[in-house]
Amino acid sequence: MNKLSSTPAKDELKSEPLRSPPQNIEAEQALLGAIMINNKAYDDVSDYLKKEHFSYSFYGKVFESASKLIEQGQNANPISLSTYLEKEPEIIEQKGFNLLTELANSTVTIINAKEYGRIIYDLYLRRELINLGQIVVNNAFEADPDQTAINQIEVTEQRLFELSSNTDSLNDLNNFDDAISSAIKIAEAAYKRDDSLAGTTTGLLDLDSKLGGLHSSDLIILAGRPSMGKTALATTIAYNASKYFQETDKEEDKGKKVAFFSLEMSEEQLATRLLAEKARINSHDIRTGRLNEDEFDKLILCTEKLRGLPMMIDDSPALTIGAIRTRCRRLARASRNNHHKGLGLIVIDYLQLLDPGKRNQNDNRVQEISAISRGLKALAKDLDVPVLALSQLSRAVEQREDKRPQLADLRESGSIEQDADVVMFVYRDEYYLEKKIPQESNFESNELFQQKLNKWQNDMDDVHNKAEVIVGKQRHGPVGKVSLHFQPEYTHFSNHSHQDMEKENF
Question: What per-residue confidence (pLDDT) applies to 435?
């Protein structure tokens, strides 16, 4: 009876030949030689090539030293570099000047310097892909409960994105004619549209008029103090955009989806708020079940009308930019596979709840928020969609007599203002005024109290159901104020004009 052997037979011991990481030492030598012959060769590779891209670490140090000398206005040649690198082991062991001179003498021409740089960088990316692949394999074998397969996929996609993003610097400057052609295409698209919008509609006429819609690749910040209606306005915009994508006959927009990342509320809470808004039923009554038969029937009808809306909700807490990017890319791919147009809008509620991801030990909150705002802008450019991100405001607003927010009130980081293409603020006078109701005990006579009370009531009537969207920054157009109608019981925003409100249809 044969027994299973614990060791393979000799003919089974066929292993693949050992493969070394991809590299081209000759290209690295030729590039360094070209730079030392003529420092102008450095200009062809300076915008993307770094010392870590060289497979031979010493050549990376030579490149780094040459770059420092050239950028200081000095000449990088074998003599200056040997002095700069005199403490390196390779220089000590191989008589540095001779080693560098051999590199320079081995190069015949600088014409191919750019091509050498591209070869070096391409091979670096290949080595990084190999390293990443090994990490993916090792992590997949480990049974770490804190690292699910989905988490590992998102981390891997984030690293791949970082690698691909760095390749942008390989592109040459675009001809101005190309930029002009792109600009005229955008203008033509706006001209041909009935609503004269170049971007995605908000469904709010005056806001669309001020912004020209939400433009692709733009980061739009919607900020406000608590209870001002940030989420309500974002929900309104998301609904109106998705409704437009669902109903439009325009081939370039039809079938697009809206991705709503709710880091503060659950998807059920968000859906309840949207139902309340569209059915004109108090959301608290919906949650507590205080509905009469007519209201319940209205709610059911509203539910049926909302089905099929191309809006996707993700209520995962503490998402990273990388995770959002991964999920949006996945959604875009799935949409295109189903003969749709991909993503039309991304909404994030709200910015300060995002996880900045990989942290340095010395990072403070300002640096974390800066990293998040840069990541959101990169996300908008990468996916070529508008990104609407909500943001909290600092308490400095409450200390002023005029409570209208300003750019300086953006919480925790000035980089939000810097990275954003549009910054908008939600403001309601009614919110602050209702807290100033006169108290009879503060007045010496009832007559004086009634006068103040009447004045307060008149002021309340003036601001009742009125809201402002203050455009504090806009790269594409003017800043200023846009008036909106707001019904707090339904958390519903609409056009300010009563006539326009009547025209709105669900």
Answer: 80
Interstrand relation of 219-224 and 466-474 (parallel, antiparallel or unpaired): unpaired
Name the burial class of residue 171, with classes exposed (0-12), middle (13-18) and buried (19+) by CB atoms within 10 angstroms of its CB.
exposed
Cα distances (Å, whole numbers) of residue 206 to 238, 245, 312: 17, 20, 26
Residue 59 in contact with residue 65, Cβ under 8 Å? no
Residues 6+ apart with CB under 8 A from 497: none
**Which has the closest alpha carbon to 42: 99, 110, 124, 97?**
110
**Residue that is written with structure tokens 């770490």 in the block:** 144
Rounded (5°) CA angle 281-285-286: 75
Question: 172-196: per-residue pLDDT in tens?
Answer: 555 555 555 655 665 565 555 555 5
The residue length of the chain stands at 506
Per the DSSP assignment, residues forming a β-bridge with 484 are 467, 495
Tokens of 466: 């009125």
- CA dist 70 and 81 (Å) reads 11
Measured distance CA(130)–CA(137) in Å, rounded = 11
- Is residue 325 pLDDT above 90, yes or no? no
**Which phi and psi (to 5°) does residue 483 adopt?**
-90, 135
Decide: pTM greater than 0.85.
Answer: no
CATH superfamily of 199-356+365-423: P-loop containing nucleotide triphosphate hydrolases (3.40.50.300)
Name the helix (H) or strand (E) containing 346: strand 343-349
Amino acid symbol at 369: I
Residue ranges of the domains in the chain?
25-142, 199-356+365-423
Q: Which pLDDT does position 107 carry in this prediction?
A: 67
Residue 385's CB is within 10 A of a number of other CB atoms, namely: 26
Count each helix (H run) and each strand (E run) in the chain, helices first. 19, 9
Distance, in Å, from the CA atom of 228 to the CA atom of 232, rounded to the nearest integer, reads: 9
Query: DSSP letter string over 70-101?
Result: HHTT----HHHHHHHTTTSHHHHHTTHHHHHH
Please name the CATH architecture into which domain 25-142 falls.
Answer: Orthogonal Bundle (1.10)
d(CA 284, CA 198): 38
